[in-house]
Amino acid sequence: MSSTAEPALEPSTPTGRVDIVLLAEPRGFCAGVEMAIKALAWMVRSFPGPVYCYHEIVHNKLVVDRFKAQGVLFIDSIDEVPPGSPIMLSAHGSPPSILEAARARGSYVVDSVCPLVTKVHHEVKVRTGKGYRIVYVGHEGHEEAVGTMAVAPDAIDRVESIAEVAALGHIEQPVALLAQTTLSHRDWEGVAVAVKERFPDVWTPGRSDLCFATTNRQAALMELAHRCDVIVVIGSANSSNTRALQQLAIEEGCERVYRINSVEELPDDLKGVIGVTAGASAPEELVTEVVEFLAPLNGVELVHVTDEDEYFPPPRNIRDLQTSIEMASTVLLGGTLLNRPVMDDRALGAEARHAETATGSPSRHPPCCGHAAPGARQAWTGYPAGVAPLCAAGLAVEQACVSALMSRESSSTQRSRT
Fold first, then answer.
1. Which residues, other chains included, contact 170 with Cβ-Cβ below 8 Å and sequence gap of 6+?
2. Distance from chain centroid for Cα 368
3. In this model, does residue 4 exceed pLDDT 70?
4. pLDDT at residue 213 greater than cutoff 50
5. Distance in Å from the first CA to the final CA of the chain
6. Measuring CA to CA, which residue among 298, 385, 372 is closest to residue 343?
7. For residue 405, what are the contacts with CB-CB under 8 A and spacing of at least 6?
8. Which residues of 235-253 are buried (b: 16+ CB within 10 A; e: fewer)?
9. What residues have CB less than 8 Å from 119, skipping those under 6 apart?
10. Tens digit of pLDDT for each residue in 92-128?
């Protein structure tokens, strides 16, 4: 039985006997989600609200709801954005026309597209430029698929089943095979074989388009699936990689599979061996809440298949924002550029930044500010994105830097139009 449970008012205590929890590793946030969440948190931290985001930044209800509470407005059309407002484009990738429309409004625009999606967009451009027709394996209506197909709409066919491959018309050009990054291997493999059988000379990239994080999470789930009485997949219904995990658990023969947004959606009769995993956009705090609710008598066993240490740096405009604020604050508030603390974005985890965005924290001060607490100069490793406001002096400097950057971005956009 597979189920997506309806939310209850409050989680209750399981009436069954949960012997042990098998916890998949890796699980949860991938490098692209980390990058996108931190980038939007920086936007919330730095700009007067509201900040506009084209489509959900990532496909997770908790993440999106927290940003909404901070004044982020998620939109489906750039026309909804007042001219001059800051705009973030989601991690799934946007059509070229959307990026152009956002820049044309004179806003400070940050594209938080995952670099793995950018790779597929680049492959579409290169192959179509060489005369290829693209056969693209992807889910109809998914933001990533829509954005990728918009790169070369007249030279690409989307398929997601063997039957759709068979239904393709005659193609005289050479064919290239590309894919949505969040597909499961099972979704991809059968269709890819069918394409290769129909077009024996098909071009494929040297490195798979499928996201390493998606692949790793599926491998960890398969490692534990046959040992479980129940599998819990944490993530939202519109998350492609989360649904792929749910489907994989069903196909592996687990009789009870639950895809949940939060612990409140779990039934209270779970017992035996429970497997737990999370999609690539699900925060770890949701995993912790589920494990605590299950309260396994024999503890938790990590089922580890590989380590993940991939890191994606912030988008260029966010890096500009970080550097400008850091340097200006240091100089104007009495510090020195020679020994100022260096921003270490890698050390700023999206989990902590996102939680701080939601809950707030005591006022923070730049390390050069005389209002900083004793020891802050030594302990500070960079502005935490999305936290509570700086002191008045620090905030004034920060907003001056933001205004200068927005003016520069607007001027650059105007020049590019002419």
1. none
2. 33
3. no
4. yes
5. 60
6. 385
7. 108, 317, 320, 321, 324
8. bbeebbbbbbbbbbbbebe
9. 209
10. 999 999 999 999 987 789 999 999 999 999 999 999 9
What's 139's DSSP letter?
Answer: -
Q: Which residue has the tokens 């609200």?
A: 49
Look-up: residue for tokens 């129909």? 198
User: What six digits make up the tokens of 291?
Assistant: 């494990």
pLDDT tens figures, 160-199: 999 999 999 999 999 999 999 998 888 888 999 999 999 9
Encoding tokens for residue 223?
Answer: 């490692």
**Phi, psi at 232, each rounded to 5°:** -110, 120
Tokens coding 117? 């999606």
Mean pLDDT for the stretch of residues 402-416? 56
User: β-strands 52-54, 73-75: how paired?
Assistant: parallel
Which of the following is catalytic: 144, 160, 265, 409? 144
Report the C-alpha gap between 155 and 153 in whole angstroms.
Answer: 6
d(CA 304, CA 23): 8
Residue 209's closest CA among 273, 269, 134, 267? Answer: 134
Question: Is residue 46 a contact partner of residue 71, using CB atoms and an 8 Å limit?
Answer: no
What pLDDT shows up at residue 117?
97
Q: φ, ψ for residue 165 (rounded to 5)? A: -65, -45
CA distance linking residue 35 with residue 88, whole number of Å: 12
What residue has token string 């002191």? Answer: 391
Yes or no: say if 403 and 108 are a contact pair by the CB < 8 Å rule. no
347: amino acid identity, one letter: A
Q: What is the reported pLDDT for 364?
A: 39
356 is catalytic: no
| 182: amino acid identity, one letter | T
Distances (CA, A) of 2 to 58, 351, 403: 24, 29, 51
Q: In this predicted model, what pLDDT tens digit does every residue of 41-90 receive, in sequence order?
A: 999 988 888 999 999 999 999 999 999 999 999 999 999 999 999 999 99
Residue 264 neighbours by CB under 8 Å, 6+ apart: 7, 8, 9, 10, 11
Contact 183, 240 (CB under 8 A): yes
- Which among 321, 303, 338 has a CA at the least distance from the CA of 231? 303
